[in-house]
Design a protein that fits this description.
By secondary structure, this protein is of the alpha/beta class. It has one domain (16-287): Rossmann fold, CATH 3.40.50.720. Helices cover 39% and strands 13% of the residues. Helix 3 links the parallel strand 2 (55-60) and strand 3. The longest helix has 29 residues, at 127-155. It is globular. The structure holds ligand LOHRUJSQ and NADPH dihydro-nicotinamide-adenine-dinucleotide phosphate. Ligand LOHRUJSQ binds next to helix 5.
Length: 289
């Protein structure tokens, strides 16, 4: 957590009222599972999907965060429940999917938003730190994807998966572990989009740019202050920007889209610099002219 313990992102009240282009029945009668569902992006997805008519099942490691979100959604008249789940444990993931299927009778959409990393020069990564990031972001995402796909195959009915990743088109300084993990998720998603098409399963990724959420507490204030300048729009995005991309992919609007990476970064992959650990002198070419 940052020294200042600052709060970032949208509140439940804001997410409940945020303007949306999606119809209130776009996901009517459907069930959506959202890992990391009480985090900044996952929470926005949960609110949007609930407002589109879906029953939402949110998971994460912290019971109190899930309870608060479920209470807010329920109070607003939406169907929601939360379950503690560490996506790194394959055993827990399988047990979770068995319970959800028994309780809900179906799942239509899985959004993998559980994830994260810490900023550090790659040369200093400890084996434990590397494993934490790879196990959470690559293995955890895979556990959820495969467990969902197996249930869809066994039920003879498809579904769709949205994996929240990171923009991997160029080196992102200070987070090489996560670029390795997310590149794996993107490659995996493209491969299984093909393998699982006969099962009626679509698999896509959303790659956010700098999106203001509580997850930003892991970065220094100085690094965060540069995030608006990482893209040609010269501003950060909100979790709602990512939620609406997930809405497009899960609803019938995304019905002919699979194996795709939808980048929502204000154009940051085309212009801009991101320095999660600060810009080293070596790269300050403007001072060396
Ligand atoms: C295109 C432009 C975009 C730019 C924006 C920035 C890019 C991305 C931003 C985001 O994604 S923000 C939202 C995501 N949220 C987070 O990242 C939250 C913080 N991260 C996590 O919680 C990660 O999931 C985690 C770090 C993998 C958590 O895993 P775990 O719970 O197992 O962690 P720990 O037990 O705390 O640590 C395990 C191990 O990892 C090493 N380590 C952890 N933190 C640091 C650190 N700050 N510095 C160095 N090393 C760290 C360390 O080895 C830990 O072991 P111990 O030393 O504690 O024994
Ligand atoms: N915000 C941004 O600028 C960007 C975000 N992203 C990615 O988007 C995703 C969501 O990030 P965001 O919402 O911003 O971050 P948050 O930190 O707010 O949310 C991440 C959530 O993931 C959950 N989580 C972490 N590890 C595990 C685990 N092992 N098992 C289950 N749940 C876990 C946490 O739940 P709990 O606290 O309960 O453990 C947390 O609620 C992440 O993958 C992130 O890296 C990508 C690019 C930019």
């Amino acid at each position: 957590m940052a020294e200042d313990g600052q709060r970032f992102g949208l509140s439940d009240a804001e997410l409940a009222a945020h303007r949306t282009v999606f119809a209130g029945d776009a996901m009517e009668g459907q069930v959506a599972v959202i890992s990391g569902g009480a985090g900044g992006i996952g929470r926005a997805v949960a609110w949007l999907y609930a407002r589109m008519g879906a029953r939402v099942v949110v998971t994460g490691r912290k019971q109190e965060k899930l309870d608060a979100l479920v209470a807010a959604l329920t109070e607003a008249g939406h169907a929601a429940r939360g379950e503690v789940l560490d996506v790194r444990s394959r055993e827990s993931v399988d047990a979770f999917w068995t319970r959800v299927w028994e309780a809900e009778g179906r799942v239509d959409t899985l959004v993998n938003s559980a994830g994260g990393q810490f900023p550090q020069a790659a040369i200093d990564f400890s084996p434990k730190g590397w494993d934490a990031v790879i196990n959470t972001n690559l293995n955890g995402t895979w556990h959820m994807m495969q467990a969902a796909a197996q249930r869809w195959r066994d039920a003879g009915k498809g579904g769709n998966i949205v994996n929240i990743v990171v923009v991997t088109t160029h080196g992102l300084y200070g987070v090489a572990h996560t670029i390795a993990a997310r590149s794996g998720v993107i490659g995996l998603s493209k491969s299984v989009a093909v393998e699982w098409a006969p099962l009626g399963i679509r698999v896509n990724c959303v790659a956010p740019g700098a999106i203001e959420t509580e997850g930003w507490n892991v970065y220094t204030e100085a690094a965060r202050a540069t995030y608006p300048k990482t893209n040609p729009m010269m501003r950060v995005g909100s979790a709602w920007d990512i939620a609406e991309a997930c809405g497009y992919l899960a609803a019938p609007s995304g019905g002919y889209v699979t194996g795709e990476v939808l980048t929502v970064d204000g154009g940051g992959q085309h212009w801009g610099e991101t320095w999660t650990t600060g810009k080293p002198d070596y790269f300050r070419t403007e001072d060396k002219a």
